[in-house]
Design brief:
Elements: H1 4-10, H2 15-33, H3 42-55, H4 57-60, H5 67-73, H6 87-93, H7 106-130, H8 133-155, H9 170-183, H10 188-206, H11 211-231, H12 240-253, H13 259-280, H14 284-292, H15 309-322, H16 327-346, H17 349-355, H18 360-363, H19 370-389, H20 455-473, H21 479-492, H22 499-522, H23 527-545
């Protein structure tokens, strides 16, 4: 233990032997001081309290800090004075013959275990603060590997016994190693490389079958992100925060965690938004990716205050993001925010299938809640995009290059599929053509090239396209509010600065969308019974608008 760092810095293979030694000391301490979760005697209880004080010294007193870390924390924190330099002094004080195999007295044995435990903690502390970058990364890799083996062994148990405390798990040691690294003032490169090693392991531990392990790992992710947001401010065009919040998106998107861990993740996201919304920056993208995968309650009609806590937490995230003052931050995550809102406005596919089997009178009812709030945030996103469109220099929108509008414009189809007109009498006179035709609806020379050189227009086009597709895909009770929101957006595009883009959306989104909606309704079981009201409102408001 005393020369472990020096040996491991020369050979990475030495770490596994150090960890075996530390685990052995931890198991001996558990067996002596907490057999079956109970203390042996009052005398040993006092010794155990001394040991636990030493174990928690890093959290309570910030012991064993180096000079750099003292300056970083802002106060002086010196290690406790140790009475012994090695175990030999303890044995000599007890007047034991070192050349004979004698049974140690309980008091001497307690002192030796406490000293070895202190040496173990000093080893972990010095490893995070003093090792160079390559040695530190090797230390983390081996610690993750040993923790991975520990998680496999725990899978064979039903739960963690009372004697297996949280401090004994290597996941906790891994969390402490990252926290010490952050507080020690290491460079951002060290932290980035360290997170690339420990981040996947924390995701693995968060999806563990044992609830104790999963909650510890999820809390570890929360603590590490909190420390980084507090001690490091992300510079422009540095997207490290995006990788910090990525485990939350992966855990929820791939359904790797249970409901309790999901609640813990949502609570953590809410805390970040409430306490450090200005420091999230590039981390907004994975946050919206995580929120997009959460199933919202859509079948119950309830006031906002009676909805689950998830709804309030998600709305707080949108409110904080749209309140940001940085155009660069908004442009980086605007696409993910819009896609998340559109997804929740449309609702789940399961609810749409249920609506086809339920009478429309049971579905049409006043509704307030998440859908109305999401529509309001869509309008706010539209307003921000309209203001940024008038800026002389607009930031680059992340993900806009992945939006494909097609090489050919989508226009209203002048052919009716499956219907053929047959003239029964050759002498029948055909009526003259109406002066209005489909060709007259398009602007001369207008094509999807309008969107090719502007990421903002692509994102804006995707927002309006999402609202148009939501007209027929959203829940029946939410159709009136969705139609009203769409025409509110459309009317704002009649201003001279946005008129060309507005007509482009009318020709290539609104009219083809209504036509597709009508044709789909005619081929669906009870289609007109459920969609007639929404189609009438859409056509009526379209006539009023133009």
């Amino acid at each position: 233990l005393s020369s472990g760092l020096e040996l491991a810095s020369h050979s990475q293979d030495y770490w596994k032997h150090i960890f075996k030694c530390c685990q052995y000391i931890s198991k001996v301490e558990e067996c002596i001081f907490r057999p079956n979760g109970k203390m042996c005697s009052p005398k040993k209880e006092r010794t155990f309290q001394t040991s636990m004080k030493t174990r928690n010294s890093l959290e309570q007193s910030f012991d064993f800090k180096g000079q750099t870390e003292d300056i970083w924390l802002g106060f002086s924190a010196k290690p406790e004075t140790r009475a012994y330099e090695n175990v030999t002094q303890i044995l000599t004080e007890a007047k034991l013959d070192l050349n004979r195999n004698e049974i140690l007295p309980p008091e001497t044995f307690s002192k030796a275990i406490c000293f070895l435990t202190q040496q173990t903690e000093r080893l972990f502390s010095d490893a995070s603060s003093n090792l160079n970058m390559m040695s530190y990364i090797g230390y983390l890799r081996e610690l993750c590997f040993q923790s991975h083996k520990e998680l496999i062994l725990l899978n064979n148990r039903k739960n963690i016994g009372p004697a297996q405390s949280q401090e004994c798990l290597l996941v906790s040691q891994l969390s402490e190693a990252m926290l010490r690294c952050i507080r020690a003032g290491r460079s951002l490169l060290h932290i980035m490389l360290a997170w690339s090693v420990v981040g996947p392991h924390f995701m693995e531990a968060s999806s563990h079958t044992d609830p104790v392990v999963s909650k510890i790992a999820t809390q570890a992710i929360h603590d590490i992100i909190t420390s980084l947001l507090h001690y490091n401010s992300e510079m422009p065009y540095f997207h490290f925060n995006e990788s910090l919040f990525k485990p939350y998106e992966t855990l929820i998107l791939l359904e790797l965690c249970d409901s309790d861990v999901q609640d813990q993740i949502i609570a953590s996201i809410q805390q970040f938004v409430e306490g450090s919304s200005s420091e999230i920056r590039s981390g907004w993208r994975p946050l919206f990716g995580a929120l997009r995968s959460i199933q919202m309650p859509g079948s119950e009609v309830m006031p906002m205050k009676a909805e689950p806590s998830h709804v309030r937490a998600i709305l707080d995230v949108f409110e904080a993001f749209l309140s940001t003052d940085s155009p660069v931050v908004f442009a980086h995550a605007a696409l993910d925010c819009i896609m998340c809102l559109i997804k929740h406005i449309k609702g789940s596919k399961e609810h749409q299938d249920i609506e086809e089997l339920v009478d429309i009178r049971e579905m049409v009812s006043p509704t307030t809640g998440f859908s109305d709030a999401a529509l309001g945030y869509i309008v706010r996103c539209h307003s921000v995009l309209a203001k940024m469109y008038l800026m002389t220099t607009c930031p680059v929108f992340r993900g806009a290059e992945k939006i494909h509008t097609g090489s050919q414009p989508v226009n209203v189809s002048c052919t009716i599929p499956g219907i053929e007109v047959i003239s029964f009498d050759p002498s029948t006179n055909t009526l003259p053509e109406h002066p209005f035709s489909y060709e007259s609806l398009s602007i001369t020379g207008q094509s999807p090239s309008l969107l090719e050189h502007s990421g903002l227009l692509k994102v804006w086009f995707l927002l309006i396209d999402g609202v148009v597709s939501a007209l027929s895909a959203c829940q029946i009770k939410n159709q009136p509010a969705t139609v009203s929101t769409f025409f509110t957006i459309l009317q704002s595009l009649m201003a001279p600065n946005y008129m060309e883009f507005g007509m482009f959306c009318v020709n290539h989104l609104l009219l083809p969308g209504i036509q597709t909606w009508i044709r789909k309704t005619g081929t669906t079981f009870k289609g007109w019974h459920t969609s007639a009201q929404g189609i009438k409102q859409t056509v009526g408001m379209q006539r009023i608008s133009f």
